[in-house]
Structure formats: structure tokens, C-alpha cells
Amino acid sequence: AVRLRVREALGAREPADAVRVQGWVRSVRSQKEVLFLHINDGSSLESLQVVADPSLEKDLTFGSAVEVQGKLVKSPHRMQNMELQAETIRVVGPCDIWSFPLKMKERHSLEYVRQFPHLRCRSNTLGALLRIRSEATAGIHSFFQDNGYVHIHTPIITSNDCEGAGELFQIETSSEEKESAEKTHFFNVPAFLTVSGQLHLEVMAGAFTHVFTFGPTFRAENSQSRRHLAEFYMVEAELSFTESLQDIMQVMEDLFKTVTSTVLSRCPHDVELFHKYIAPAQKVMRVTGKNCSPVVLFSSSCRISYSEAVEILKQAPQTFTFKPEWGCDLQTEHEKYLVKHCGEVPVFVVNYPYDLKPFYMRDNEDAPQHTVAAVDLLVPGVGELCGGSLREERLPFLKSRLQRLGLTDAYQWYLDLRKFGSVPHGGFGMGFERYLQYILGVDNIKDVIPFPRFSHSCLL
């Protein structure tokens, strides 16, 4: 028998005599003369209907793993193209339905399934989410490869604090904790889990012009809020030979539109599940055309400076928890208001105060305000989605700033990049989980990751 995935069986155009389908039982309904069950193997939101003789029902329960052999035939039901007429059903792995926390015909909330990180992937919602993650990941890689970028695997263990916020997880061996205060580090210097691959990408951009990375990053921010993760994935890119912040913004926009189009065209039913049951008021995008290309309203009028943003916030009719002042960072409440003010569409905010941003951002030389060529992309419901800048390629400017910060010795190698063939360049990073939050309308970022967080109930 030819093995078919559920998605392949549902999409088959012609009947087939000898097929084999493996998966997990989603429903069982036994009648006097016929047995109906639906099985799913994770390849599709929709399950495959199996029609069998009631004598084959032995040990069939919701959640059990089965292998079904039989004939693939046209379904008489309008809602499904094909169904499987079973000749044999083998229970590969039984399931105790009384202790199984997921129940047949119940729509479990995200809060409920979060209690079972080792089992929640078997729910429809998390199954849909993981298929969307997979397609979005493939779409990101395709976008960059199609546009001539070289994929770089940047280090996960590093001695650099790229963001300068000090929110790092330090790496130690288990034996180091037992040693004396005079202990030596494993790498002879303190080592941390990376917060960004940007500085390593800048090294590679000096040889390959356009580079990107897509991997795990870590922040030791002590927050259990609905928008923070200790481990998350970051898409980062660096572009050499660019002197315009507009070029960086255009890549951000093109990346978003291309990847979203891929997700909508390949996972329409999975996305619909979120918009119908999880976020029914979601209005992130409209979908048109046969290929489900998104019409996302990136408007040139929704590109404002940081200074303009602060003035908009000061004139806002609402009271903020954090008072907006020039020179202070924009908080999430400020970002969401700016998006609302601009009509609930993505907003680019450019030219942030010099003292707010890391040392590598390019000085605009615009005294007395003194800003850097930085940009944040704000989106509805989330706030900041992407952050980027032109990088400071001028050696005197960079050397002066590192001296003021006392970082010259630590970043001597970074100064070397400006001595040997330096060019104007820039880049950006996009939080992958925040992107998923935005397109799906999920409120809690912990619901868009495979495992909600390290938990005593599931030591994975």
C-alpha cells in the first residue's frame, strides 16, 4: 500500500485502491452498520474521514495512534473531497481517554493547554500555529535567498553585549560554580547567550555585501508579562553600500509582505482558525486575489520622526502611565497609540535621540537635538516589530563614542572593520514571535512558541 499523509489524501484528485494512512484519532462515531472516525497526522488542519465496518472498532479511542489501510474514494459529502474506506485498522499506540487532558469535541482555551506543554501541540490551535511557524520560517529564508543574501550562522555563545542593556544569561560550566573566587572562565573571558547576531553579521557584510541570520536569541529581562520571552527567534540582516535609512525600511516592508503572502497562501485554513476563534476582531490585513497576497497598508504618510512622535503623544487626549518626553524611550503604550493615531497601520518612526541608542548607530550630526539614523517599525496590537539603523562607518566618530563609553578595548576588532575597506551600511532585526503575534492577533506571546517556557511539569 502507498503511504499518504492526510494532506495528500485530502488533496488527491483521483481514487486509489491500496493506500496506507497513519495518524491520531480525532473522533470516533460508531453506528449499527458503519463506523466513522477522523484521523489527523499534523500535516493539515482538516482531518481525514475513515469509513469502516463496526467490527474494526476494537481499542479505538480519541487520541490513539492508528494505521489504516484501504481504498481512497470520492466522498459523497460536500465538505470533504476524499475519504478512506478502511479494510484494516491497526492501533499502534492506545490512549487512555480518561486521563488524557485533551477531550474530544471540546475547544480548549490557550490558557488551558498552556498547562500541558508536552501535549498541547496535539490541539488544533497549536497544530495550526506550528504549521504557520514552519511556513513563515521557510518564507523568510526564501525571501533573503531570492534577493541575493548569504545566510550566516552567528554564534549563540558570545562575549558581546550587542544591545548594551546588560540583560544577558552568563554561561558557566557546572564545575565552575564549585570552584574558588579565583576561577578561570571556560573561554578565558566571561561568556553569554547571545542577545543579537548583528555585530557578527557586520563582520560578514564586509565580505558578502548582503547577509542575514535567523536563530535563537536570549534576554535575561526579569519579566513574566504577556509580551516577553527569555528565548525567542530573531531575523537579522545587514546591507553594505547603503547610505539611506529608506533602503532599510524598504527591506523591512518587502520582507513582511512576502512572508505574510507565503503564510496566507500555504496555510489559509490555519490562519482562518486564529482569526475566527482566537482573534475574531483581527483586522491586520485584507486578502485579495487567488494567491492570497496581503494588502497591508504601508503608507508613506505613516513615516514620522521620533520628535514628531513625542509631540503627537504630548497632545494625546489620554493619560499615559509613562509621560512622553523628548529623550525618553517610547513605551509599548506610546507605540500602540501612535499606530492608532495613524489609522491602525504599520508606522515607521525614525531618527531617535543619540543617547538612547547603542554605540553602533550612525550620528546624524543634527545638533542641538542630536539624533541617530535609527528606525523602528510599529504595528497594531504589538508595538515594535522591527528595529534597525544605519551603522556608524566613520572611524573618528565610532572611536570617539567608544572612548566615552569606556568600550575601546572590548571593541578594538569592531574599530578594525572601519580601517580596512569600510563602506556605508545598515541593518535591522525582527522578532519572529512578535511577527506571528501580529499576523494572527494572539495576545500572549507565549502562545506562539512551541513550548511556553521552562516548566516543572515538562522538563524539555
Automatic annotation (TrEMBL):
CDD domains named among the record's database cross-references: AsxRS_core, EcAsnRS_like_N
EC number: 6.1.1.22
Annotated signal sequence range: none
Gene3D superfamilies: Bira Bifunctional Protein, Domain 2, Nucleic acid-binding proteins
Source superkingdom: Eukaryota
Keywords tagged on the record: Aminoacyl-tRNA synthetase, ATP-binding, Ligase, Nucleotide-binding, Protein biosynthesis
Stored PROSITE patterns: AA_TRNA_LIGASE_II (PS50862)
Residue span(s) of domain Aminoacyl-transfer RNA synthetases class-II family profile: 130-450
GO annotation, cellular component aspect: mitochondrion
A GO molecular function held by the record: nucleic acid binding
InterPro entries: Aa-tRNA-synt_II, aa-tRNA-synth_II, aa-tRNA-synth_II/BPL/LPL, Asn-tRNA-ligase, Asp/Asn-tRNA-synth_IIb, NA-bd_OB-fold, NA-bd_OB_tRNA
Protein's GO biological process: asparaginyl-tRNA aminoacylation
Pfam families attached to this UniProt entry: tRNA-synt_2 (PF00152), tRNA_anti-codon (PF01336)
Top enzyme category: ligase
Protein family membership: Belongs to the class-II aminoacyl-tRNA synthetase family.
Name used for this protein in its record: asparagine--tRNA ligase
